[in-house]
Amino acid sequence: MTETVVQKYGGSSVADVPKLERVADRVIATAKQGRRVCVVVSAMGRTTDDLIRLAKQISDSPPRRELDMLLSTGERITMALLAMAIQKRGFEAISFTGSQSGIITNDRHSGAHIIEVRPIRIQDELERGRIVIVAGFQGMSYRREITTLGRGGSDTTAVALAAALGASCEICSDVDGVYTADPRIVSEAHRLDSISYEEMQELAEHGAKVLNAQAVEWARRSGIHIYARATHAEGVGTRVGNEGSGREACGVATATGLVRLHLKGRSVELGAALAEGEVPLWQLTDDGTTATALFGVENLPDWAGFSRALRDRFGAELEVVENLAAVSVVGTALGSAQLPAQAIQEAGRLGAKIVAIDTSPLRITVLVHPSDAPGLARALHAAFIAAG
Q: How many CB atoms within 10 Å of residue 73?
C-alpha cells in the first residue's frame, strides 16, 4: 500500500514567492519517493495580521463571522499559488479549501474546533496521483458557515487530516524542531529529539508557538506521531508521541497578551459571561469572596467590544488587568513544593514583580508584566533546564 504523508508549511515557510517555490521543490521531492502527498498551508508571512489590521480600520471589535470570511482568504491565496508552482514543475496538483476538504467544525467563529473530517475528495485526488494542497486554519461548521480554527490552527488541520487519511504528519517551519525555549528569547535553548504529547500540550497551551495545543490533543487521541522539522534544512527534527523528553523539566514557554479579571462575590455570573463570549480560559478560580479569571486575547478579535460589555454588566465590582505575561516551566517532575519557591526566588533576584503563580504536577507558571518576561524566561531556563 502506498504511504501517504501530510506536510504542513507555516506562514514563514511560504512568506514570499521564492520561499513558496522552494516548498514546491520539497513537496515534489517527497512525491518522487513514491509517497502520496497532502500539503496543508498557512497564509503567506504576516497576511493574517495584515487582514486583522484592515478589519480594525473599520471596527475595533469586528464581528467574528465576517472576520472569519476575511481571514480565510489568506490560506486560499497560498494554496492556489503552491498548486500553480507544482504544476509548473510538471506534477499534477489541486487545491482545496477547508470546506472542500471535509473539515467539519462546531459553530464557533474565531477559534472553532474540528469535530469531524470527511476527506473524500482528497482521497479521490490522491488515488489519481495528484498532490493535494489544503488551506489550513479553516473549515465549515455543521451549519455550513465558514469558520477559522484560531492561531496555529493549520497544525490542527494537518493532524486531523493525517488521522483521517491514515498518514504520517510533518509540521514544517523555520525552526528544526521543538526547543527547550524560544531561541529568540533564550540563546541557550536546544532542540529536543522527542517529547511526549502531555509535555508538548502543556508548552503549547502556555505560549510555545512551534505547535498548536489543539493539534497535539488531536494527535494524542488519534495516536498520530507528529514530526516537527525545518522546511529548508535537512534534519530529523523532534518527534511528538508517547515517548517523553526524558527530562524532569523539558521547556520554558512565554505567553503575552493575557488578561486577568477579578469580580467580588459573583463567580457564577462571571463564568457564564465568559462562556457566552466563548473566551478560551487559562484559569477560573473562586476563593469564596472573589472570582478570578485568566485568559489570552489572541483569539478574541472582538475583545475591545466584549470588555466594554463586561464593564457595563458588572460595573465597579469588576477589575480588569490587561497586558500581562506568563512564563511557564514544563516537565514531568515539578510537583515538589520546593520548585515553585525556586521560581519565586529567581523572579526576586531579577526584581520582577510577580502578579500570581500557578502550579501543577507538570507546570509552574509565573504571571508577570511583559517587560519582565524575557529575563525571567532566561533565568528559569538556566535554573530548571540548563542545570538539570
A: 16
Q: Which three cell numbers stand for residue 388?
A: 538539570
What span, in angstroms and rounded, lies between the C-alpha atoms of 248 and 362? Answer: 9
pTM (predicted TM-score): 0.92
* pLDDT over threshold 90, residue 268: no
Query: The dihedral of CA 298, 270, 368, 358: what is its sign?
Result: negative
Mean pLDDT estimate for the chain = 93
What's the pLDDT tens digit per position in 117-159? 999 999 999 999 999 999 999 999 999 999 999 989 999 999 9
Tell me which of 161 and 281 has the higher pLDDT: 161
* pLDDT one-digit tens code per residue, 57-116: 999 999 999 999 999 999 999 999 999 999 999 999 999 999 999 999 999 999 999 999
DSSP string of 192-260, one letter each residue: -SEEEHHHHHHHHHTT--SS-HHHHHHHHHHT--EEEEESSS----EEEESS--SSSEEEEEEEEEEEE
Give dist(CA 39, CA 135) in Å, integer. 9
Helix axes 153-165, 213-222, angle to 10 degrees: 10
CA 192 to chain centre: 19
Considering only CA atoms, which of 42, 95, 40, 99 is closest in space to residue 69?
99
User: Does domain 250-386 sit in CATH 3.30.2130.10?
Assistant: yes
At which residue does the C-alpha cell 514530526 appear? Answer: 227
Rounded Cα–Cα distance for residues 9 and 23 (Å): 8
User: In CATH terms, is domain 4-174 a member of 3.90.180.10?
Assistant: no
Region(s) of the chain under CATH 3.40.1160.10:
4-174
Q: Which helix (H) or strand (E) holds 368?
A: strand 363-368
Q: Considering the chain, tell me which residue range(s) the CATH 3.30.2130.10 domain(s) occupy.
A: 250-386
Task: Please tell me the number of Cα atoms within 13 Å of 115 on its side-chain side.
Answer: 12
- Nearest in space to 300 (alpha carbons), one of 63, 119, 76, 57: 63
Cell reading at 6: 501530510
How confident is the model over 296-329, as pLDDT tens digits?
A: 998 888 899 999 999 999 998 999 999 999 999 9
